[in-house]
Amino acid sequence: MNAPNRVIAVDLDGTLIRSDMLIESIFLFLRFNPLRIFELVFWLLRGKAHFKQKIAASVGSDVRTLPYNQKLIDWLVAQRAEGAKLVLATASELQLARKIADHLSIFDDVIGTRDLNLAGAHKRDALVSRHGEHGFEYVGNSSADLRVWESAAMAHIVNPERGVLARAHRTVRVGEVFEDRPGYLRVLRKALRLHQWAKNLLVFVPLLAAHKFTNLHLVAEGLLAFLCFGACASSVYLLNDLLDLQDDRQHRTKRNRPLAAGTFSLFHAMLWIPALLVVAFAIALLCLPLKFSLVLLGYYVLTLAYSLALKRAVMVDVVVLAMLYTTRVVAGAAAMALTPTFWILAFCMFIFLSLALVKRYTELYEAREKGVQVKAPGRGYVASDFELLASLGGSAGYLSVLVLALYINDPQSHVLYRHPHWLWAACPLLLFWLSRVWIIAHRGEMHDDPIVFALRDRMSRCVCICFIAIFGVSAF
Question: What is the per-residue pLDDT for 379?
Fold first, then answer.
């Protein structure tokens, strides 16, 4: 085909964007309307086209922040400059497709789902009726696009699904191939946030506090509890990322998460969520006391409520975050049949409340730096709240030091420690670390998650080692 007569039809999901608009729209709908989940079933019973129309009409997708395939867009712009006509041909709802086309301003025509689900053979028929058999080139990525390529003059392929490239070569002449996906396992590890599993080490706190860390049976049960919490937490992380796609794409660091950036399939995420939950609860029910399974279930329900609604409730969100951290300690005690003391629970609630407030303070600091005076994306706070959060967070942190001091003076500590007075060295150490965390947050140098910051910060690791050493020396 001569350049002035070339027609290049471009698929949307997985091709022009590194995402799936239908899945995004479903989870955006569920985020704000969780109690209307059964409506989705009734809409689907009336056909895919009706389903897509109702979903698109119920949510407002922000097309500006979608993970566009910039290499493909640059190539399309170059082809258009040479005289080619560009057509956005997608199975997504038509009005949504037009919003995307208007945002990019490179397409001459748009076809999408209205009364008929424009996928596979239906999309091929629509393109053939407009441009004739072999009268267009088609850019796609999936097995559904093979039907379209049968009637195309040339196939251009973007990050193809497994086996699609080989089948396309047997069907049609293949032109450009755009493939820049990172390794699956590397992206999966990032999507599951395996580095966050370090938080689950809190399940061993009751074991250390009871000075039973030489009991290998209890250590083994602690490891199983650690794995259960890790799998459960990763399942929740994936669900949370699916619900927060639009907000994450407006965040300085969260926009690089695999789901927000489009480097990990949304469909695969939907498969991993139940799989991880099954693994977590199967291990818990088969290998650990029933009480642990109940605590794990409570953790999951509370986390689900946090993801769906509580994270947008002012102050409720930080209290819930502190509770989620403390629940790990309670779960560790349940797994190893130990009793968490009043001192441990009080200390955990105050110090984790302080760290949760650091997290919110950092988000508001960034919002203020950007000149945002309204509510931060996905939160209930406004930028002017950040001074109050600093005051509350610092107070909560210092209260945790007070709890530690009172514990040192408790007669029970004299039973567990041979030299309990040496524990006083831990108080100024903790005061230093908490004060340093808040100073770093005040300077705008804090990672959005203070736990991740602590794991990466050399000074924090040194403080942790010294803290453990103080307790060890005091015990022996």
Answer: 65
Token pair belonging to 367: 């919002």
What DSSP state is assigned to residue 156? E
What is the rounded CA–CA span in Å between residue 432 and residue 96? 53
Place of tokens 């076809």: 111
**Among candidate residues 440, 210, 435, 475, the one with its CA nearest the CA of residue 343:** 210
- Minimal CA–CA distance to 389: which of 378, 403, 376, 377? 376
Tokens matching residue 133: 């058999």
Choose among 353, 352, 328, 358: nearest CA to 340: 328
Question: How, if at all, do strands 109-113 and 137-140 pair?
Answer: unpaired
**What is the phi/psi pair of residue 139, to 5°?**
-110, 120
Strands 137-140 and 154-158: parallel
Interval 49-64 mean pLDDT? 89
Q: Extract the tokens encoding 186.
A: 């590397």
Model's pTM, two decimal places?
Answer: 0.86
- What stretches of 170-295 adopt beta strand conformation (E)? 174-178
| Residue 223, C-beta contacts closer than 8 angstroms, at least 6 positions apart | none
Report the length, in residues, of the chain: 476
pLDDT of 318-332, one tens digit each? Answer: 999 999 999 999 999
DSSP notation for 168-216: HHHHS-EEEEE--PPPHHHHHHHHTTGGGGGGGGGGGHHHHHTT-TT-H
Distance between CA atoms of 24 and 31, rounded to whole angstroms? 11
List of domains in the chain:
3-178 (3.40.50.1000), 196-340 (1.10.357.140)
Between the CA of residue 341 and those of 95, 206, 215, 332, 416, what are the distances in Å?
A: 58, 8, 19, 13, 13
Of 338, 295, 324, 334, the closest CA to residue 207 belongs to 338
CA-derived radius of gyration, the chain: 27
Residue 274 burial (CB < 10 Å; 0-12/13-18/19+)?
exposed
Write phi, then psi, for 402 (nearest 5 degrees). -65, -40
